[in-house]
Amino acid sequence: MEKRVLSIGWARRDITPSLPVALCGQFHVRVATSVLDPLTLTAWAVSAGQEALIWVSCDLVGLPQNFHACCRKMLAEELPEFDPEKLIISATHTHTAPYMDAMWHDGVIPPDALSPSAYFQQLARAVVDAAVEAWRKRSPGKLSYGHDYAVCAHQRRMTYFHDLDLPHIIGEKTETNAAMYGATATPEFKGFEGYVDHRIDFIFTYDPEGKPTGVVVALPCPAQATEWLSEVSADFWHEVRQYLRKRFGAGFHLLPLCCAAGDLAPRQQLQQKEEERMLKLGGRSNRQAIADRITAAMEEVLKWSRSEMFDEAVFLHQTGNLAVTPRMIAEEEYVTVKSGLEKLRAAPPEESPRGVSVKQAKIYRAEQILRRYENQKTDSRVLVEQHIIRLGDIAFCTCPQELFLNYALRIQARSSALSTMVIQLTGRGVNPNGYLPTAEAEKGGGYSACMYCCAIGSEGGQEMVESIVRALERAFPSDVV
User: What is the pLDDT of residues 94-111, one digit of tens each?
Assistant: First the structure.
């Protein structure tokens, strides 16, 4: 495998929507009439020899299944020399960005709000424009990389000594002995279900003279420190961008990537009153504190990593669709959901707009279960898009779902790369993508690990792990690394 000279390009677009706009990310519809801070889309183009990628990161909750095909078709028309399958699109998972597909709330989004289909088209145009600009702006450049640690995310799934004995909420969740954001101040609290990852990976780009031009930040944490707001916001990435603009100037670029964090969140679940006291005394919000930790880690890595810049590298980009086992719906589950859905539909109409939207969300999710049950009779596999990238001694792997952290740990433990970043909410997946929980989480149940949340389960998750590991072995032969 030969090293090739690197060419690097950057571009970005403001993707802040017009108002009013319905925000995605909660069971109820929120209509934003103000913008707390702008939404941004950033494109990073890299080529070396005949190999290439364009990675576009967006301040969004997620990406509809059909979005990638739309963008790739447009890109192929405008940039015929670039393989459109090597366009990668990912979301930071802010919960204060617009819908691109009505999904749960089809029919209940206010008619005066910006429609999801209109924002879909706006985003597609912005993705393609930024991708073309970044590609055409490529020029010889240099890279450096490294990692540090910062407390940003926390485990958000609690486990209990005994079953919770809670009723099955049709269209929402089933719980046994685990719960997302569950109570901790109870004798039944056993502990946290999974691990937490405080590592942050950084890749810095430079012009030929060594001036920094941008940074890729791979963080195992969704951008949902203030997910409940009814204002348009990029969450803590806005504060990070403010710092970078002040530190490096307006021409510096940030590509934020959300690593595997399906069971993580940027809010402490224990000793919360002391956490609030600390922030209050420090005169900071949780968002600002997270941004400060990210940028402090970045400065530390930049300080020593720039002493080892490189302008050529082994560069490989493998991509394709992987057929995996879906999360199967048992007949007993089907019968329960079908009966519950009939009762839900027959219930008296909700009076408040919030109640109407919550009921619609539950109906949609229950209907999805019935469709999946019918589909699995003829389709025993589902397709997910994967990208495996080698850039020098580091690797990127992608997954469309909200991937539980343990899957990333399994991949990293078996990877020969010096650093392996597993990026979630990236590329085309099933519709809707949902979470990808571990077998342990499936046993515990609760939101994020029950049938309503997972089109792919732990069996398919391990199939993805094995596929990625095999691809990494091809990219990093033992006689090379």
Answer: 999 999 999 899 999 999
* Cα–Cα dist 61/24, whole Å: 7
Q: Which of 184, 220, 171 is nearest to 361 (CA)?
A: 171
Q: Choose among 162, 228, 231, 220: nearest CA to 190.
A: 162
pLDDT in tens, 236-252: 999 999 999 999 999 99
Q: Tell me the per-residue pLDDT of 176-194, one tens digit each, with 9 for 90 and over.
A: 999 999 999 999 999 999 9
Q: Is the pLDDT of residue 233 over 80?
A: yes
Q: Determine the number of helices (DSSP H) and then strands (DSSP E) in the chain.
A: 10, 24
The residue among 325, 241, 349, 231 whose CA lies nearest residue 288 is 241
The SS3 of residue 117 is: helix
Contacts (Cβ under 8 Å, ≥6 apart) of 211: none
Query: Which residue, 90, 56, 407, is CA-closest to 222?
Result: 90
For strand 189-192 and strand 382-391, is the pairing parallel, antiparallel, or unpaired?
Answer: unpaired
**Measured between alpha carbons, how far is 441 from 449 in angstroms, rounded to an integer?**
6
Judge whether 265 and 405 are in contact, CB under 8 Å. no
Contact between 399 and 260 under an 8 Å Cβ cutoff? The reply is: yes
Residue 297, SS3? helix
Q: Kindly list the distances between the CA atom of residue 372 and the CA atoms of 27, 423, 449, 454, in Å, as whole numbers in the listed order.
A: 21, 26, 16, 11
Q: How far apart are the first and last CA of the chain?
A: 11
Helix pair angle (331-346, 353-375), 10° resolution: 150
Pair type for strands 419-423 and 394-398: parallel
Antiparallel, parallel or unpaired: β 189-192 and 212-219:
unpaired
Cα–Cα dist 432/402, whole Å? 11
pTM beyond cutoff 0.70: yes
DSSP category for residue 263: T
Distance of alpha carbon 196 from its chain centroid, rounded?
A: 16
